[in-house]
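Worked example 2:
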Amino acid sequence: MDRRGRPRATPEHLEPVLHAVIRLSVTRGAAAVSFRDIADEAGVSVGMLQHHFGTRAALLERAHEWYLLGVTEHMRGIAREDLPPWEKLLKLCVRVSSREDRAQRASIWVELLAQSARDASMRALVGRINREWSSVLEEVIDAGVHSGDFRPSGTARVAAQLLVTFVDGLDVAELTGVAGEPPGSWDGMLFEVARMILGAGPAAA
């Protein structure tokens, strides 16, 4: 996001600002967050934000990209662990359905999806994040297919995309609420859907 002639800030320097944007986006909605709100939350000046990010839209996009790709990096770390494919996939499912940050991630992701219908740069960002998430799952699924642990009816890529699509649906359900679904029920649903798509693992308890 740095412009020509603008000093490049270190990630450590900008991270408090990005955290502030995420907190405000969740509590108020990104559309309602101003430069002044972000500056006050992060304890910096509006001039500093303008200097490093240029526009409010660029700052919001940078923060949302930083946060969601951070989730992906955590997932990649899990994918590199020395675990059997089904255990690795369950651990990934636990990560994306974690109640610790599910509401925050869901709020940011669903808002980005809504913005992407009107904004080409948001569509590009959503597409990139979707590809990143799918690629992590595809890598794990492909390894499971080759080891004989997974038996999906389609390709590893299709299976990964189906799981990502289902998680998107859970994000919407997290924000809107579904009558009769107790807290934590999403975990079992995600495990069961993964089992059915991949033809592997025991039925969810």
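The chain has one domain: 11-198. The radius of gyration is 19 Å.
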